[in-house]
UniProtKB/TrEMBL annotation:
Pfam families: Methyltransf_25. Residues 62-153 form the Methyltransferase domain. This is Methyltransferase domain-containing protein. Transmembrane segments: none annotated. It comes from Methyloligella halotolerans.
Length: 244
């Protein structure tokens, strides 16, 4: 059995905090409910990423920014020419799950515990492809551009991201209102407490952009081509692809 090691880049205090761990487990269970019920279109997103990776005909390395528990990526990478998978996440418990999920994969696996912004900007580790599912939207617009610029310098083929997207002309407040109006009645599998967790997180942390801005950020970062390749059925998220 191949054991996957987690490289440490975060202060140990964060990891030992039992309360933080409990909080993580609660929030992760709720997030997992959204993934399992496909409320965030993870299945179609996995299919899109898999299709893109299948077109790469030579062996490749992939950086997974905010990899979480790597539960989906294992299947996405099956039947591709991946030779090296590098996941980064701030959450130690998520990485422990990722290590288990990726045990015995027939390619090299590195998992780094730390802040992806710092790691991508300060410790550039080149990869052929970079992927991020649902995390870059926590950054302010300028920081999104900085991160994409750093990725442009360290990625040899393409970057793909799946992120919340404002409708054209929609404000963040309008997005938050739409999020509640559409999703609260649709997500019947969440308890009131779980809904509050998600709703608080989205209200406090999410900084979605319009498709136009996501594409412009990629071009400003120096990518030759920026394309919206998928818009999810719920009208909240899109995949953007940036080619070097
Ligand atoms: C919504 S989950 C997405 C997980 C997975 N990529 C997916 O698509 O299902 C967001 C992940 O981003 C991680 N995260 C958030 N900010 C981060 C940061 N600055 N550095 C590293 N990981 C971060 C969280 O720990 C969490 O695992």
């Amino acid at each position: 059995m191949v054991k996957v090691a987690i490289h440490e880049f975060a202060p140990a205090a964060e990891i030992d905090d039992a309360q933080a761990m409990e909080q993580f487990q609660k929030q992760w269970r709720t997030y997992q409910k959204l993934v399992d019920s496909d409320a965030l279109s993870h299945r179609e997103v996995a299919a899109q990423l898999h299709a893109a990776l299948r077109t790469v005909e030579t062996s490749f390395s992939i950086l997974d920014i905010a990899c979480g528990d790597a539960g989906e990526i294992k299947h996405v990478l099956a039947d591709t020419k991946v030779s090296h998978y590098h996941g980064i996440d701030l959450s130690e418990p998520a990485l422990e799950l990722a290590a288990r999920n990726l045990e015995d994969c027939p390619f090299q696996v590195d998992l780094d515990h730390g802040d992806y912004v710092e790691m991508v900007e300060r410790r550039p580790d080149p990869a052929d492809i970079a992927w991020c599912g649902l995390s870059i939207h926590h950054l302010k617009t300028d920081r999104k551009r900085d991160l994409l610029t750093a990725l442009r310098k360290t990625t040899d083929r393409f970057v793909m991201i799946y992120e919340p997207t404002l409708k054209e002309g929609e404000t963040r407040d309008g997005y938050l209102e739409r999020f509640g109006t559409v999703n609260r009645p649709a997500w019947t599998f969440l308890t009131d407490e779980e809904w509050r967790q998600i709703s608080n997180h989205v209200t406090q942390c999410d900084l979605p952009e319009t498709a136009e801005t996501w594409l412009a950020l990629g071009r400003e970062a120096g990518f030759a081509k920026a394309t919206e390749i998928f818009h999810d059925r719920t009208d909240f998220y899109s995949i953007y692809r940036y080619d070097v």
